[in-house]
Amino acid sequence: MRGGLWTNTVKYYRLAIKEFLPVLNELKNKNSADAETIKKLNDLIEIYDEIAAKIDRYNLNLEDPNRSYADEPDKIDLNLDERMIEHFSRLALRLLEVWKNRKNEIENKPYLTEKNEDEFYTLKELIWPLEAQFNNQSMLFFKHKNEGALKFPGEEKQEIQKTKAETPQQISGIFPDELIVKLPKDIQILCAEFNFNYKNRKPNACILLLRRILPLSIVRKFQILDEENEIKVDGNYLETRSLVGKAEKILKSKKIYQTILNFKLVLDSSQHSYTLNVTIMDAEGAGVAIRVFLEDLFSLENNE
Questions:
Q1: CA distance linking residue 239 with residue 241, whole number of Å
Q2: Exposure string over 47-82, b if 16+ CB within 10 A, otherwise e
Q3: I need a labelling partner for 168 at 20 to 30 A (CA). Which of 11, 30, 61, 254 fits?
Q4: Quick check: 42 and 25 in contact, CB under 8 A?
Q5: 272 burial level (CB within 10 Å; 0-12, 13-18, 19+)
Q6: How confident is the model at residue 166 (pLDDT cuts 50, 70, 90)?
Q7: Nearest of 193, 196, 197, 234 to residue 216 by alpha carbon
Q8: Rounded to an integer, what distance in angstroms lies between the CA atom of residue 293 and that of residue 265?
Q9: Do residues 246 and 230 make contact, with C-beta atoms less than 8 angstroms apart?
Q10: Gap between the Cα atoms of 80 and 149, Å rounded
Q11: Overall average pLDDT of the 116-144 stretch
Q12: Position 163 confidence tier, pLDDT thresholds 50, 70, 90
């Protein structure tokens, strides 16, 4: 840029280089397998090192970058073209964001040490002059404000990986497909509905579906065995607890019977108790118990 840059602008460039050179080196380690990204990062590191060396020749006081000192020049020529001026303006914008975030972190601490208070005051005095420059149409920083803070090569990839790591794993259903295909059609539908509501964290709907699945599965099993009369009195089906009692006789694992009775209390309380707050954990526990019950009840061996 002909005539050079105002010295206070150059000071912000130097502070930004100091802040972000370690970030570039860290990105190199994280993207070590990506040759193209490493090349771009090395190019930036080389540029930053050279620009920093040029600026350091002037022995500028960086404590208050917006202040001019008697022994400092008004302008400094770093031989930057418009593209590099945009780059460093956006780098300075990123520096401003870092300062603001640090200031907010300190403000939110439950207790401020003397060190915290000193840092807070320093950041406060650094932020407002630079922010003012980005909001002043006559200043060079304002020209590139709308391009946003600078992103470095490889950062987008790291952010994607971080997002994936922080994103909760996809919630699977309680009733697996290999079990569902063994079941009578109407129970298949109910189990699929349960899985949908479980994945969407709707415990009340889950519990209501389990209340339907439990007795219906026993009725269908006895129909398959052609022993429907075993579960009827005067032509009417037994109530659920009695149905579970009848099912005990045909279960391979007798432990399941007691487990089902224990969870039946949760199922019944969801309808009859006005104080019970059903959670997704309740639905999960009862769902797993009934899944084991269905596995035993409709196993291929039992159906033969």
A1: 6
A2: ebeebeebbeeeebeeeebeeeeeebeeebebebee
A3: 30
A4: no
A5: exposed
A6: very low
A7: 193
A8: 16
A9: yes
A10: 19
A11: 89
A12: very low
Report angle CA 252, 238, 232 to the nearest 5 degrees.
90
Partners of residue 206 on adjacent β-strands: none
How distant is the alpha carbon of residue 82 from its chain centre? 38
Q: Tell me if 16 sits within 8 A of 54, measured CB to CB.
A: no
Q: Terminal CA-to-CA distance of the chain, rounded, Å?
A: 87
CA angle at 133 for the pair 129 and 137, rounded to the nearest 5°: 155
- The string of pLDDT tens digits covering residues 230-241 is 999 998 999 988
Rounded distance between C-alpha atoms, residue 117 and residue 103, angstroms: 10
pTM as predicted: 0.53
Closest to 204 measured CA to CA, from 106, 125, 283, 139: 283
**Which residue pairs, CB below 8 angstroms and at least 24 apart, start in 121-129?**
123/99, 125/64, 126/65, 126/99, 127/96, 127/99, 127/100, 127/103, 129/65, 129/66
Phi, psi of 6, rounded to the nearest 5 degrees: -60, 140
Coil, strand or helix at 75: strand
Q: What is the DSSP string of 217-263?
A: HHHHHHHHTT-GGGGEETTEEPPHHHHHHHHHTT-S-THHHHHHHHH
Q: What is the DSSP letter of 291?
A: H
Compute the Cα dihedral for 120, 123, 129, 135 and give only its sign. negative
